């Protein structure tokens, strides 16, 4: 449960500095995690990004201030991180469905987001099918893009990359190169320590010469937890990640090892309810 405690420590840090300008690097450091891994874990467990959580909490406190104090709306806008009253009003209306002026008058209902407390439910009703695989270093060949994790940019850009490689023939060109243990196209996340960016690869495991049109990277030797994923994309994959972090990690005795992690997509129809894919996570 150490990682749960680390995540809660980071959330408590956010709450202590909620009205200050804090970076994702500072927050992730409280959890002893890379910015990418912290943001991913947070989003998986809470269904919200770190930025969304901070914004919701600030606007919740702003609503309380409006109903309990006589502070001017312009002063509250600056207090909660908005450059102008107009920007504050727009964000406030988006969350609460009414303007700050209406909230002060008691018109309408406010939407409150309470301080987050991580509680892991060890359900276990449905089995999580996995195997532990130890592998020496191996090579993947494909295309790479660097994505910033600032403002969760990577969450929006990675799906766009998949749309591109599926439509421009890249995946079709990669499939004949598959000659390693992993029989599918892989999405590989590699986060550099102490940075707020990742290298994301769409690639295949390959031994031999690398075609000129592709790059390659060596995946370090590791012990991998390999999880089966059954169901149509993207929902089956999203559900699998949530169950791994909310059920499997807390009860397994394993911890995330901090190197590359992979999603493996076979040749199955991604819309098929019986589609088979895998998640590979390095563990220790």
UniProtKB/TrEMBL annotation:
Residues 8-106 form the HTH araC/xylS-type domain. InterPro entries: AraC_E-bd, Cass2, Homeodomain-like_sf, HTH_AraC, HTH_AraC-typ_CS, MarA-like, Reg_factor_effector_dom_sf, Tscrpt_reg_AraC-type_HTH. It comes from the Bacteria. GO terms for molecular function: DNA-binding transcription factor activity; sequence-specific DNA binding. SMART domains: AraC_E_bind, HTH_ARAC. The keyword Iron does not apply. Keywords: DNA-binding, Transcription, Transcription regulation. This is AraC family transcriptional regulator. It comes from Fredinandcohnia quinoae.
């Amino acid at each position: 449960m150490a990682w749960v405690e680390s995540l809660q420590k980071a959330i408590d840090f956010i709450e202590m500095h909620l009205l200050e300008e804090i970076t994702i690097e500072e927050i992730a450091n409280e959890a002893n995690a890379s910015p990418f891994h912290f943001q991913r874990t947070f989003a998986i467990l809470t269904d919200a990004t770190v930025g969304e959580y901070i914004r919701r909490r600030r606007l919740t406190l702003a609503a309380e201030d409006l109903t309990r104090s006589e502070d001017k709306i312009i002063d509250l806008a600056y207090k909660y991180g908005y450059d102008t009253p107009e920007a504050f009003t727009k964000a406030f209306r988006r969350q609460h469905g009414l303007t700050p002026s209406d909230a002060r008058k008691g018109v309408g209902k406010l939407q409150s987001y309470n301080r987050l407390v991580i509680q892991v439910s060890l359900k276990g009703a449905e089995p999580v099918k996995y195997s532990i695989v130890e592998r020496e270093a191996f090579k993947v060949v494909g295309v790479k893009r660097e994505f910033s994790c600032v403002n969760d940019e990577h969450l929006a850009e990675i799906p766009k990359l998949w749309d591109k490689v599926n439509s421009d023939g890249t995946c079709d060109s990669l499939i004949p190169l598959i000659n390693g243990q992993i029989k599918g196209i892989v999405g590989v996340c590699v986060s550099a320590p102490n940075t707020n960016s990742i290298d994301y690869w769409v690639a295949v495991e390959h031994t031999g010469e690398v075609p000129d049109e592709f790059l390659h990277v060596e995946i370090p030797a590791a012990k991998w937890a390999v999880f089966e994923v059954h169901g149509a994309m993207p929902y089956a994959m999203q559900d699998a990640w949530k169950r791994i972090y909310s059920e499997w990690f807390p009860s397994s005795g394993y911890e995330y090892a901090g190197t590359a992690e992979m999603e493996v997509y076979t040749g199955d129809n991604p819309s098929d309810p019986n589609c088979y894919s895998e998640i590979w996570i390095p563990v220790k």
